[in-house]
Write a structure and sequence with these properties.
mainly beta; Tachylectin-2, Chain A; five-stranded antiparallel β-sheet; 23 strands; binds beta-L-arabinofuranose; hydrolase; hydrolase activity, hydrolyzing O-glycosyl compounds; Glyco_hydro_beta-prop_sf; polysaccharide degradation; Glyco_hydro_43
Amino acid sequence: MTEPAKASQPLVTHIYTADPSAHVFEGRIYIYPSHDLDRDNASNDNGDQYDMEDYHVLSMEHAEAPCTDHGQALHVNDVPWASKQMWAPDAAYKNDTYYLFFPARDHDGIFRIGVATSASPAGPFKAEPNYIPGSFSIDPAVLVDEDNRAYMYFGGLWGGQLEKWQTGEYDPEGAEPAKGQPAYGPRVAELSEDMLTFIENPQEIAIVDDAGNPITADDEDRRYFEGPWMHRYNGKYYLSYSTGTTHKIVYAIGDNPKGPFVFQGTILEPVLGWTTHHSIVQFQDKWYLFYHDSSLSGGADNKRSVKMTELTYNEDGTIRTIQPYAV
Ligand code: FUB
């Protein structure tokens, strides 16, 4: 069943924002987006057009409330290991501390994932001097599970360089798998108690079909591309992500945080603009999808705006597909 988006307006219009990671902290909805710059960049497959330099934190008192911009929370100039491209972040709360996880290119042009801390969910955040050892690629999403163990999900193809990490080392010649081969999965690593390091080498997540066969690289309607998100619903783990070239947000369900995950279907049909990126959060008794599109900029890939809409489940735990522009 398809649900029209109930609220399809940008949450803020004074800046461009993308890649929203939403959480409920201290009774408010906090949104950790990328901050797209108002520059007329040409698009390429390396993602050079996404030249973001800082993060702003947004928040809302409730789902219908106006959205507050808390101002600059972290700038690339204040991250010793990073050189450019502050891409999709996420945040987590543990140890009476708020953690901002973010990818950026290091001084060798390789994407790594760093962490910054704050006493407030609105920031500002102070970055650790080095990236998380063993981290690579982009799009961190962190789940603090009910047992208080924390897991980071990450990885993105092409500009995000995931295909260049298949040997465990960065290989500039790394490419996507051949037709019919299993697609590359996102990575997961459990975080240390202090949330600043991995306690294990990142593992590749398996996404399979109903028969248990891996989703293949040429199955572009279902294969993993970037933008992982993890949430729990009725005791199951829901891994959702972007399919990249087919521009969908899809999901798979598993019984534990590391999978395997069985592919289910589409959460969000394509939006205006090349990328699609989302998060899912419960606030009070409703669930919400946070996503972005390029409507406000008239379709510029690198000038996106964060939006939200209600997300609903069927009785069997499947998610109803959302058409972003249905009325
Ligand atoms: O915002 C830059 C990149 O675009 C993100 O890291 C990807 O998920 C895509 O949304």
